[in-house]
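User: I'm putting together notes for a lab meeting next week and I want to include a structural view of one of the chains we've been expressing. I don't have a solved structure, so I'd like a prediction I can at least talk through. The sequence is below, exactly as it appears in our construct file.
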Amino acid sequence: MSGSGRTDLAESFARLIRSDGPMPVARFMGESNARYYAARDPLGAAGDFVTAPDISQMFGEMVGLWLVDLWVRAGRPADAIYAELGPGRGTLARDALRVMRGQGLEPQVHLVEGSPALRKVQGEALPGAAFHDDIASLPEDRPLLLVANEFLDALPVRQLVRTEAGWRERMVALAPEDTADVPGAAFVFTAGTQPMDAAVSERWRGAPVGTLIETCPGAAAAMAELARRLTTQGGAALLIDYGHLAPRAGSTLQAVRAHAKVDPLALPGEADLTAHVDFAMLAEIAQNAGVPWIAGTTQGAWLGAVGIEARAQALSARAPERAEEVAAAHRRLVHGDDMGDLFKVFALSGGGWPPGAGFAPQA
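Assistant: Thanks for the context. Below is the predicted structure for the 363-residue chain, given as structure tokens.
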């Protein structure tokens, strides 16, 4: 933090905006998160947020069961690998792999992680894991069992807003009082001046003034690469994140610090910036790539379908003194008022692999 109370990155952004004008939301978000994740382990009670694997071992175990069921029905290929995007502290992988190994599946572990701080923690939790900077460097010669939990939401989103003059990119500018280099002044949203109508899909072309839409080039690129791999290598992917399964408008950009929501423009580099994942867009990309099976549902519905209630009962019976803790974790993961409806589970398989369990039959 600087002496004026602003982060060093905020000072850099302010100087850049004074020099070059407002910056796109996508750049603000991307550079903020790059700084944020490079320097810290943000997870857990002492961090900024808690993810589902940290709430209960049941979450990772259900993921492991889903993967091992697919593997068995695919003929138990001995060379299948486990890959995870943004694996946090390695908690999900540890719990999932424990279940998988109990059923005879002992895959090589490949982790896609850009944070040096988190790589250190993951290496301690998962000895022998191979690290990658991106999906493109994962092995291409064997089936892929891939998981991504709360990974896509941190990728930078591009926001477009319909103005009286047409579609414009949403930018980050300095508040008027900051034009004279006033210490501590704020960032604000504004509409850019460059016409962006050509970048808007037909679905939104006639939307009313004030409509805001989001796109995520990083998520689109990741899905295109993943779809290509599944159709050629075989395997399956399970993507879990908060987002929407049908197209929708509106800003979903938010920031969290110390387990509380904060102004997304207030603390660049010091708060976790996220946006809802557009699973409808990802499904369209996968379909265009020829992926034969794609499905999506809520986290609560999926966990219920793959057996989390039975697992909760078994854990409570084994350790009655933890029954209330297990019940609270179960509710938090599946109930609609907690994570159950907000988080979505999106799955796909290809290369001759069967559909995954826990989803309603496709029409």
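A couple of points you could mention at the meeting. Residues 75 and 194 are 54 Å apart (CA to CA). The chain has three domains: 8-37+157-213, 40-155+215-260+271-300+343-349, 301-342.

User: Perfect, that's what I needed.
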